[in-house]
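Colleagues,

Please find the record for the two-part complex below.
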Amino acid sequence: MSIEILDPGALTLVQDAHGRPGWRHVGVPVGGAADAWSARLANRLVGNDDDAALLEMTLHGATLRFDAPALVALTGGLDARLGGFPVRRGVSVRVHAGATLSVGGGDGLRGYLAVAGGIDVPEVLGSRGTDLRTGFGGHEGRALRAGDRLTVGAADVVGRRRWRAAREAGPIRILPGPHADAVPVAALEDAEWVVGSEADRTGVRLDGSRMTVGVREVPSMGLPLGAIQVPGDGRPIVMLADRPVTGGYAVPAVVIGADVGRVAQLRPGDGLTFGSVSLQEALEADRRAAEELAAIELLGEPDDDELSWVGSLD
Amino acid sequence: MAQSVARTLGQLPPISGVVPGRASVLVEFDPATSTEGEVRSLLERALVRRSEGEVAGRQRTIPVVYGGERGPDLEEVAGHLGMTADEVVAHHATVELEVLFCGFASGFAYLGDLPAELRVPRLATPRTRTPSGSVAIADGMTGIYPADLPGGWPVIGWTPIRLFDADRVPPTYLLPGDRVRFRAVSGADAAGFAGRPEDW
Protein backbone atom coordinates (compact mmCIF):
# COMPACT_ATOMS: atom_id res chain seq x y z
CA MET A 1 0.00 0.00 0.00
CA SER A 2 1.06 3.59 -0.27
CA ILE A 3 0.42 7.04 1.10
CA GLU A 4 0.13 10.02 -1.20
CA ILE A 5 1.17 13.43 0.03
CA LEU A 6 -1.52 15.89 -1.07
CA ASP A 7 0.06 18.80 0.83
CA PRO A 8 3.22 18.62 2.98
CA GLY A 9 2.12 21.59 5.13
CA ALA A 10 4.91 23.56 6.79
CA LEU A 11 7.37 20.63 6.75
CA THR A 12 6.77 16.89 6.56
CA LEU A 13 9.67 14.45 6.77
CA VAL A 14 10.31 10.73 6.93
CA GLN A 15 12.12 10.13 10.22
CA ASP A 16 12.82 7.38 12.72
CA ALA A 17 13.33 7.52 16.45
CA HIS A 18 17.04 6.77 16.69
CA GLY A 19 18.66 8.62 13.79
CA ARG A 20 22.30 7.81 12.98
CA PRO A 21 24.38 8.39 16.13
CA GLY A 22 27.32 6.26 14.93
CA TRP A 23 28.77 8.61 12.28
CA ARG A 24 29.23 11.78 14.30
CA HIS A 25 33.04 11.49 14.18
CA VAL A 26 32.82 12.28 10.44
CA GLY A 27 30.33 15.08 10.93
CA VAL A 28 27.07 13.25 10.24
CA PRO A 29 24.36 14.67 12.53
CA VAL A 30 22.27 12.23 14.56
CA GLY A 31 19.00 13.53 13.14
CA GLY A 32 15.90 11.35 13.57
CA ALA A 33 12.61 12.46 15.08
CA ALA A 34 12.87 15.75 16.98
CA ASP A 35 10.49 14.34 19.61
CA ALA A 36 11.78 10.77 19.55
CA TRP A 37 9.60 9.73 22.49
CA SER A 38 6.41 10.56 20.57
CA ALA A 39 7.77 8.75 17.51
CA ARG A 40 8.33 5.58 19.57
CA LEU A 41 4.85 5.83 21.06
CA ALA A 42 3.21 6.17 17.63
CA ASN A 43 5.05 3.08 16.42
CA ARG A 44 4.07 1.02 19.45
CA LEU A 45 0.40 1.92 18.96
CA VAL A 46 0.40 0.29 15.52
CA GLY A 47 2.55 -2.70 16.47
CA ASN A 48 5.77 -1.48 14.79
CA ASP A 49 9.29 -1.65 16.19
CA ASP A 50 10.20 1.57 18.02
CA ASP A 51 12.56 2.54 15.22
CA ALA A 52 10.25 2.07 12.24
CA ALA A 53 10.17 5.02 9.83
CA LEU A 54 7.19 7.34 10.22
CA LEU A 55 6.08 10.86 9.30
CA GLU A 56 7.08 13.92 11.28
CA MET A 57 4.67 16.75 10.44
CA THR A 58 5.23 20.33 11.49
CA LEU A 59 2.69 22.88 12.74
CA HIS A 60 -0.13 22.70 10.19
CA GLY A 61 -1.33 21.93 6.74
CA ALA A 62 -0.13 18.39 6.04
CA THR A 63 -2.73 16.39 4.10
CA LEU A 64 -2.29 12.76 3.03
CA ARG A 65 -4.35 10.06 1.37
CA PHE A 66 -4.20 6.31 1.97
CA ASP A 67 -4.72 4.13 -1.09
CA ALA A 68 -5.42 0.99 0.95
CA PRO A 69 -6.77 0.17 4.42
CA ALA A 70 -4.24 0.85 7.16
CA LEU A 71 -3.78 0.99 10.91
CA VAL A 72 -2.34 4.38 11.90
CA ALA A 73 -1.61 6.32 15.08
CA LEU A 74 -1.04 10.01 15.70
CA THR A 75 1.07 11.26 18.61
CA GLY A 76 2.93 14.43 19.56
CA GLY A 77 1.56 17.94 19.56
CA LEU A 78 -0.74 18.16 16.54
CA ASP A 79 -4.39 17.29 15.91
CA ALA A 80 -5.78 15.85 12.70
CA ARG A 81 -9.03 14.90 11.00
CA LEU A 82 -9.63 11.72 9.05
CA GLY A 83 -12.38 12.01 6.49
CA GLY A 84 -13.87 14.83 8.55
CA PHE A 85 -13.72 13.06 11.93
CA PRO A 86 -11.27 14.21 14.58
CA VAL A 87 -8.45 11.73 15.20
CA ARG A 88 -7.63 11.19 18.86
CA ARG A 89 -3.96 11.36 19.65
CA GLY A 90 -2.51 8.28 21.31
CA VAL A 91 -5.06 5.80 19.91
CA SER A 92 -4.54 3.68 16.84
CA VAL A 93 -7.29 3.89 14.24
CA ARG A 94 -8.11 1.93 11.11
CA VAL A 95 -8.44 3.97 7.94
CA HIS A 96 -10.30 2.98 4.79
CA ALA A 97 -8.77 2.97 1.35
CA GLY A 98 -9.08 6.48 -0.05
CA ALA A 99 -9.34 8.15 3.35
CA THR A 100 -7.72 11.57 3.70
CA LEU A 101 -5.96 12.71 6.85
CA SER A 102 -5.43 16.43 7.36
CA VAL A 103 -3.42 17.99 10.14
CA GLY A 104 -4.49 21.16 11.88
CA GLY A 105 -4.65 22.51 15.42
CA GLY A 106 -3.12 21.06 18.52
CA ASP A 107 -0.90 22.39 21.26
CA GLY A 108 2.57 21.50 20.05
CA LEU A 109 4.87 21.93 17.07
CA ARG A 110 5.21 18.40 15.68
CA GLY A 111 2.91 15.47 15.05
CA TYR A 112 4.00 11.89 14.39
CA LEU A 113 2.00 9.57 12.20
CA ALA A 114 2.96 5.91 12.31
CA VAL A 115 1.50 3.38 9.88
CA ALA A 116 1.54 -0.33 10.64
CA GLY A 117 4.43 -1.74 8.61
CA GLY A 118 6.40 1.51 8.67
CA ILE A 119 7.34 3.81 5.77
CA ASP A 120 9.46 1.75 3.42
CA VAL A 121 12.48 3.85 2.49
CA PRO A 122 16.07 2.57 2.28
CA GLU A 123 18.28 2.64 5.34
CA VAL A 124 21.22 5.03 4.82
CA LEU A 125 24.09 4.95 7.32
CA GLY A 126 21.90 3.02 9.73
CA SER A 127 18.77 5.17 9.65
CA ARG A 128 15.71 5.80 7.49
CA GLY A 129 15.54 9.41 8.67
CA THR A 130 16.03 12.45 6.42
CA ASP A 131 19.22 14.53 6.68
CA LEU A 132 17.98 17.86 5.31
CA ARG A 133 21.29 19.73 5.51
CA THR A 134 23.23 17.45 3.18
CA GLY A 135 20.24 15.86 1.48
CA PHE A 136 20.25 12.10 2.00
CA GLY A 137 18.14 9.45 3.74
CA GLY A 138 14.36 9.51 4.11
CA HIS A 139 12.46 10.00 0.85
CA GLU A 140 15.01 11.05 -1.77
CA GLY A 141 16.97 12.99 0.83
CA ARG A 142 14.47 15.83 1.02
CA ALA A 143 11.32 17.18 2.62
CA LEU A 144 8.13 15.67 1.22
CA ARG A 145 6.27 17.49 -1.56
CA ALA A 146 2.76 17.33 -2.93
CA GLY A 147 2.48 14.33 -5.23
CA ASP A 148 5.05 12.17 -3.42
CA ARG A 149 4.00 8.57 -2.87
CA LEU A 150 5.41 6.62 0.05
CA THR A 151 5.35 2.84 0.14
CA VAL A 152 4.34 1.20 3.41
CA GLY A 153 5.97 -2.05 4.51
CA ALA A 154 4.07 -5.28 5.12
CA ALA A 155 2.50 -5.50 8.58
CA ASP A 156 0.96 -8.17 10.78
CA VAL A 157 -2.67 -7.54 11.58
CA VAL A 158 -2.79 -6.30 15.16
CA GLY A 159 -5.54 -5.00 17.42
CA ARG A 160 -6.06 -1.32 18.10
CA ARG A 161 -4.28 0.15 21.09
CA ARG A 162 -4.65 3.14 23.34
CA TRP A 163 -2.06 5.01 25.35
CA ARG A 164 -3.29 5.76 28.86
CA ALA A 165 -0.80 8.00 30.59
CA ALA A 166 0.05 11.68 30.70
CA ARG A 167 3.28 13.29 29.71
CA GLU A 168 5.41 15.04 32.29
CA ALA A 169 4.70 18.77 32.75
CA GLY A 170 6.55 21.49 34.70
CA PRO A 171 9.95 23.10 34.21
CA ILE A 172 12.36 21.69 31.62
CA ARG A 173 14.89 19.77 33.71
CA ILE A 174 18.60 20.39 33.24
CA LEU A 175 21.95 19.04 34.40
CA PRO A 176 25.12 21.16 34.59
CA GLY A 177 27.16 21.23 31.36
CA PRO A 178 30.90 21.52 30.77
CA HIS A 179 30.89 25.33 31.15
CA ALA A 180 28.64 25.60 34.21
CA ASP A 181 31.38 27.64 35.91
CA ALA A 182 31.81 30.20 33.13
CA VAL A 183 28.06 30.71 32.65
CA PRO A 184 26.23 30.12 35.94
CA VAL A 185 23.25 27.78 35.55
CA ALA A 186 21.25 29.90 38.02
CA ALA A 187 20.86 32.52 35.27
CA LEU A 188 18.98 29.91 33.22
CA GLU A 189 16.73 28.96 36.11
CA ASP A 190 15.91 32.48 37.24
CA ALA A 191 14.45 33.70 33.95
CA GLU A 192 11.13 33.22 32.17
CA TRP A 193 12.15 32.19 28.66
CA VAL A 194 10.16 32.50 25.47
CA VAL A 195 10.74 30.39 22.35
CA GLY A 196 11.99 32.71 19.60
CA SER A 197 11.14 32.59 15.93
CA GLU A 198 14.27 30.55 15.20
CA ALA A 199 12.98 27.17 16.31
CA ASP A 200 13.73 24.29 13.98
CA ARG A 201 15.07 20.76 14.08
CA THR A 202 18.61 22.05 14.73
CA GLY A 203 17.72 23.97 17.85
CA VAL A 204 15.42 26.34 19.67
CA ARG A 205 16.66 29.87 20.33
CA LEU A 206 15.25 31.48 23.45
CA ASP A 207 14.23 35.08 24.10
CA GLY A 208 12.87 36.85 27.12
CA SER A 209 16.15 37.36 28.94
CA ARG A 210 19.88 37.48 28.30
CA MET A 211 22.66 35.54 29.96
CA THR A 212 26.01 37.05 30.78
CA VAL A 213 28.61 34.96 29.05
CA GLY A 214 32.06 34.90 30.63
CA VAL A 215 33.49 32.99 27.69
CA ARG A 216 32.54 34.00 24.16
CA GLU A 217 33.84 31.07 22.16
CA VAL A 218 35.31 27.74 23.20
CA PRO A 219 37.30 25.20 21.19
CA SER A 220 34.68 23.28 19.15
CA MET A 221 33.43 20.31 21.13
CA GLY A 222 30.98 17.45 20.69
CA LEU A 223 27.39 18.51 21.40
CA PRO A 224 25.16 16.02 23.22
CA LEU A 225 21.41 16.05 22.56
CA GLY A 226 19.79 18.83 24.59
CA ALA A 227 23.01 20.84 25.02
CA ILE A 228 22.19 24.48 25.84
CA GLN A 229 24.66 26.62 23.89
CA VAL A 230 25.03 30.28 24.79
CA PRO A 231 26.58 32.44 22.04
CA GLY A 232 28.01 35.88 22.69
CA ASP A 233 24.60 37.58 22.46
CA GLY A 234 23.52 35.74 25.63
CA ARG A 235 20.47 34.07 24.06
CA PRO A 236 20.54 30.35 24.85
CA ILE A 237 19.90 27.74 22.15
CA VAL A 238 18.66 24.25 23.07
CA MET A 239 20.24 21.90 20.55
CA LEU A 240 17.95 19.23 19.04
CA ALA A 241 18.14 16.26 16.64
CA ASP A 242 19.75 18.03 13.65
CA ARG A 243 22.37 19.87 15.72
CA PRO A 244 25.86 19.95 14.20
CA VAL A 245 28.01 17.28 15.84
CA THR A 246 30.37 19.93 17.26
CA GLY A 247 29.85 23.51 18.37
CA GLY A 248 32.02 26.39 19.54
CA TYR A 249 29.88 28.15 22.16
CA ALA A 250 29.78 27.63 25.91
CA VAL A 251 27.44 24.90 27.15
CA PRO A 252 26.45 25.74 30.75
CA ALA A 253 23.72 23.08 30.95
CA VAL A 254 22.13 20.13 29.16
CA VAL A 255 18.40 19.31 29.01
CA ILE A 256 17.83 15.79 30.38
CA GLY A 257 16.93 13.06 27.89
CA ALA A 258 13.37 12.73 29.16
CA ASP A 259 12.62 16.41 28.42
CA VAL A 260 14.27 17.01 25.02
CA GLY A 261 11.11 15.89 23.21
CA ARG A 262 9.07 18.38 25.25
CA VAL A 263 11.36 21.21 24.09
CA ALA A 264 10.91 20.01 20.49
CA GLN A 265 7.15 20.50 20.90
CA LEU A 266 7.36 24.18 21.89
CA ARG A 267 6.05 26.69 19.37
CA PRO A 268 7.56 30.14 18.81
CA GLY A 269 6.06 32.38 21.51
CA ASP A 270 5.60 29.57 24.06
CA GLY A 271 7.09 30.19 27.50
CA LEU A 272 9.37 27.84 29.41
CA THR A 273 11.39 27.66 32.59
CA PHE A 274 14.33 25.49 33.55
CA GLY A 275 14.90 23.58 36.77
CA SER A 276 18.13 21.87 37.84
CA VAL A 277 17.98 18.23 38.85
CA SER A 278 20.51 15.70 40.12
CA LEU A 279 21.82 12.86 37.96
CA GLN A 280 19.69 10.48 40.06
CA GLU A 281 16.58 12.54 39.33
CA ALA A 282 17.44 12.58 35.63
CA LEU A 283 17.78 8.79 35.63
CA GLU A 284 14.49 8.47 37.49
CA ALA A 285 12.86 10.72 34.85
CA ASP A 286 14.25 8.42 32.14
CA ARG A 287 12.72 5.41 33.87
CA ARG A 288 9.40 7.18 34.19
CA ALA A 289 9.43 8.21 30.51
CA ALA A 290 10.05 4.56 29.57
CA GLU A 291 7.13 3.48 31.80
CA GLU A 292 4.83 6.08 30.28
CA LEU A 293 5.79 4.82 26.85
CA ALA A 294 4.77 1.32 27.89
CA ALA A 295 1.39 2.39 29.29
CA ILE A 296 -0.53 1.00 26.35
CA GLU A 297 -3.68 -1.12 26.47
CA LEU A 298 -5.18 -3.30 23.79
CA LEU A 299 -8.62 -2.15 22.64
CA GLY A 300 -9.68 -5.52 21.26
CA GLU A 301 -8.64 -8.24 18.88
CA PRO A 302 -8.17 -7.42 15.21
CA ASP A 303 -11.57 -8.85 14.16
CA ASP A 304 -13.85 -7.47 16.87
CA ASP A 305 -13.50 -3.79 16.18
CA GLU A 306 -15.34 -3.48 12.90
CA LEU A 307 -16.93 -0.27 14.15
CA SER A 308 -13.59 1.41 14.66
CA TRP A 309 -12.98 2.22 11.00
CA VAL A 310 -12.60 5.88 10.19
CA GLY A 311 -12.53 7.67 6.89
CA SER A 312 -14.53 7.69 3.70
CA LEU A 313 -15.27 4.69 1.49
CA ASP A 314 -14.95 6.75 -1.71
CA MET B 1 45.31 13.32 19.54
CA ALA B 2 41.54 13.62 20.12
CA GLN B 3 40.78 11.44 17.14
CA SER B 4 43.09 8.59 18.10
CA VAL B 5 41.62 8.63 21.60
CA ALA B 6 38.18 8.52 19.99
CA ARG B 7 39.19 5.57 17.84
CA THR B 8 40.35 3.64 20.89
CA LEU B 9 37.27 4.49 22.93
CA GLY B 10 34.81 3.57 20.20
CA GLN B 11 35.77 -0.09 20.74
CA LEU B 12 34.79 -0.13 24.42
CA PRO B 13 31.39 -1.74 25.04
CA PRO B 14 29.74 0.57 27.63
CA ILE B 15 30.49 3.62 25.49
CA SER B 16 27.63 4.48 23.15
CA GLY B 17 28.98 7.59 21.45
CA VAL B 18 32.36 9.25 20.84
CA VAL B 19 32.71 12.65 19.17
CA PRO B 20 36.18 14.19 18.82
CA GLY B 21 36.34 17.95 19.25
CA ARG B 22 39.07 20.57 18.84
CA ALA B 23 40.56 19.93 22.28
CA SER B 24 38.15 17.44 23.83
CA VAL B 25 36.33 14.20 23.21
CA LEU B 26 32.63 13.82 23.99
CA VAL B 27 32.11 10.35 25.47
CA GLU B 28 28.53 9.13 25.87
CA PHE B 29 27.43 6.18 27.99
CA ASP B 30 24.22 5.00 29.63
CA PRO B 31 24.38 6.08 33.28
CA ALA B 32 21.66 3.52 34.07
CA THR B 33 24.09 0.66 33.33
CA SER B 34 27.57 2.13 34.01
CA THR B 35 28.77 4.64 36.55
CA GLU B 36 30.91 7.64 35.75
CA GLY B 37 33.69 6.07 37.85
CA GLU B 38 33.67 2.85 35.82
CA VAL B 39 33.80 4.72 32.53
CA ARG B 40 36.51 7.05 33.85
CA SER B 41 38.83 4.19 34.81
CA LEU B 42 38.14 2.51 31.48
CA LEU B 43 39.16 5.75 29.72
CA GLU B 44 42.33 6.05 31.77
CA ARG B 45 43.42 2.53 30.86
CA ALA B 46 42.55 3.13 27.19
CA LEU B 47 44.62 6.32 27.16
CA VAL B 48 47.66 4.47 28.48
CA ARG B 49 47.27 1.80 25.79
CA ARG B 50 46.92 4.49 23.14
CA SER B 51 50.22 6.13 23.97
CA GLU B 52 51.88 2.73 23.54
CA GLY B 53 50.60 2.19 20.02
CA GLU B 54 49.57 5.37 18.27
CA VAL B 55 47.79 4.72 14.97
CA ALA B 56 49.05 7.01 12.23
CA GLY B 57 46.46 8.73 10.02
CA ARG B 58 46.42 8.09 6.28
CA GLN B 59 48.02 10.43 3.74
CA ARG B 60 45.55 12.26 1.52
CA THR B 61 46.15 14.69 -1.33
CA ILE B 62 43.37 17.05 -2.38
CA PRO B 63 43.63 18.70 -5.83
CA VAL B 64 42.53 22.35 -5.70
CA VAL B 65 41.78 24.91 -8.40
CA TYR B 66 42.78 28.11 -6.59
CA GLY B 67 41.22 31.50 -7.23
CA GLY B 68 38.96 32.51 -10.08
CA GLU B 69 35.21 32.11 -9.96
CA ARG B 70 35.39 29.19 -7.60
CA GLY B 71 37.87 30.80 -5.24
CA PRO B 72 36.24 34.24 -5.07
CA ASP B 73 37.95 35.41 -1.86
CA LEU B 74 41.57 34.56 -2.79
CA GLU B 75 42.49 38.15 -3.71
CA GLU B 76 40.93 39.56 -0.54
CA VAL B 77 42.70 36.94 1.60
CA ALA B 78 45.99 37.81 -0.12
CA GLY B 79 45.38 41.50 0.59
CA HIS B 80 44.66 40.79 4.23
CA LEU B 81 47.83 38.71 4.59
CA GLY B 82 50.00 41.19 2.68
CA MET B 83 50.89 38.60 0.04
CA THR B 84 50.15 38.07 -3.62
CA ALA B 85 47.51 35.50 -4.55
CA ASP B 86 50.27 33.24 -5.90
CA GLU B 87 52.10 33.40 -2.59
CA VAL B 88 48.95 32.38 -0.68
CA VAL B 89 48.50 29.43 -3.05
CA ALA B 90 52.15 28.42 -2.74
CA HIS B 91 51.89 28.50 1.04
CA HIS B 92 48.58 26.67 1.25
CA ALA B 93 49.68 23.96 -1.15
CA THR B 94 52.85 23.32 0.87
CA VAL B 95 51.59 22.77 4.38
CA GLU B 96 50.57 19.39 5.71
CA LEU B 97 47.41 19.57 7.78
CA GLU B 98 45.63 17.06 9.96
CA VAL B 99 41.90 16.31 10.14
CA LEU B 100 41.40 17.64 13.68
CA PHE B 101 37.69 16.95 14.00
CA CYS B 102 34.48 17.10 12.00
CA GLY B 103 31.29 19.08 12.39
CA PHE B 104 28.90 21.61 10.87
CA ALA B 105 27.57 19.12 8.28
CA SER B 106 28.10 15.56 7.12
CA GLY B 107 31.70 15.15 5.96
CA PHE B 108 32.84 18.68 6.87
CA ALA B 109 36.39 18.18 8.17
CA TYR B 110 38.32 20.84 10.07
CA LEU B 111 41.96 20.71 8.90
CA GLY B 112 44.66 22.37 10.94
CA ASP B 113 46.57 24.04 12.16
CA LEU B 114 47.42 26.59 9.48
CA PRO B 115 50.69 28.43 10.02
CA ALA B 116 50.44 31.94 11.49
CA GLU B 117 51.02 33.60 8.11
CA LEU B 118 47.80 32.05 6.72
CA ARG B 119 45.45 33.16 9.48
CA VAL B 120 42.50 35.24 8.35
CA PRO B 121 39.18 36.19 9.97
CA ARG B 122 35.77 34.96 8.83
CA LEU B 123 33.78 36.91 6.26
CA ALA B 124 32.00 39.95 7.68
CA THR B 125 28.80 38.73 6.00
CA PRO B 126 28.39 34.96 5.70
CA ARG B 127 27.17 33.53 2.39
CA THR B 128 23.81 31.81 2.30
CA ARG B 129 25.25 29.30 -0.15
CA THR B 130 28.84 28.14 -0.44
CA PRO B 131 29.10 25.65 -3.31
CA SER B 132 30.08 22.02 -2.77
CA GLY B 133 33.86 21.53 -3.06
CA SER B 134 34.73 25.07 -1.91
CA VAL B 135 38.07 25.20 -0.08
CA ALA B 136 37.97 27.87 2.62
CA ILE B 137 40.19 29.12 5.44
CA ALA B 138 39.44 30.76 8.80
CA ASP B 139 40.09 30.27 12.51
CA GLY B 140 43.56 28.90 11.69
CA MET B 141 42.05 25.99 9.81
CA THR B 142 40.98 24.88 6.33
CA GLY B 143 37.56 23.48 5.58
CA ILE B 144 36.18 21.91 2.42
CA TYR B 145 32.42 22.16 1.85
CA PRO B 146 31.12 18.63 1.15
CA ALA B 147 27.77 19.98 -0.10
CA ASP B 148 26.16 23.31 -0.95
CA LEU B 149 25.92 24.91 2.49
CA PRO B 150 25.73 28.34 4.10
CA GLY B 151 29.21 29.48 5.13
CA GLY B 152 31.18 32.29 6.71
CA TRP B 153 34.70 31.27 5.70
CA PRO B 154 36.62 33.01 2.88
CA VAL B 155 36.75 30.67 -0.14
CA ILE B 156 40.17 30.46 -1.84
CA GLY B 157 39.60 27.55 -4.20
CA TRP B 158 37.61 24.54 -5.21
CA THR B 159 38.25 20.80 -5.36
CA PRO B 160 36.63 18.58 -7.98
CA ILE B 161 36.72 15.47 -5.81
CA ARG B 162 33.73 14.21 -3.90
CA LEU B 163 34.24 14.16 -0.13
CA PHE B 164 30.95 12.75 1.13
CA ASP B 165 28.92 9.83 -0.18
CA ALA B 166 26.14 8.60 2.11
CA ASP B 167 25.95 5.32 0.19
CA ARG B 168 29.50 4.30 1.10
CA VAL B 169 31.01 3.05 4.35
CA PRO B 170 32.72 5.08 5.63
CA PRO B 171 30.77 7.92 4.01
CA THR B 172 33.72 10.34 3.96
CA TYR B 173 37.03 10.50 2.09
CA LEU B 174 38.70 12.22 5.04
CA LEU B 175 38.67 10.64 8.49
CA PRO B 176 39.78 12.24 11.75
CA GLY B 177 43.56 11.87 12.09
CA ASP B 178 44.26 11.79 8.32
CA ARG B 179 47.20 13.92 7.07
CA VAL B 180 46.18 16.17 4.19
CA ARG B 181 48.09 18.12 1.55
CA PHE B 182 46.68 20.32 -1.20
CA ARG B 183 47.92 20.27 -4.77
CA ALA B 184 47.28 23.21 -7.09
CA VAL B 185 45.76 22.08 -10.39
CA SER B 186 44.49 24.03 -13.36
CA GLY B 187 40.81 24.34 -14.18
CA ALA B 188 41.43 22.26 -17.30
CA ASP B 189 42.97 19.43 -15.28
CA ALA B 190 40.18 19.47 -12.68
CA ALA B 191 37.86 17.36 -14.82
CA GLY B 192 40.33 14.47 -14.55
CA PHE B 193 39.76 14.32 -10.78
CA ALA B 194 35.97 14.56 -10.90
CA GLY B 195 34.01 12.15 -8.78
CA ARG B 196 35.13 9.87 -6.06
CA PRO B 197 38.85 9.35 -5.47
CA GLU B 198 40.17 5.85 -6.13
CA ASP B 199 41.78 5.55 -2.70
CA TRP B 200 38.45 6.24 -0.84
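The helical segments of chain A are 36-45, 186-189, 257-264, 279-294.

Comments are welcome before we finalize the supplementary table.
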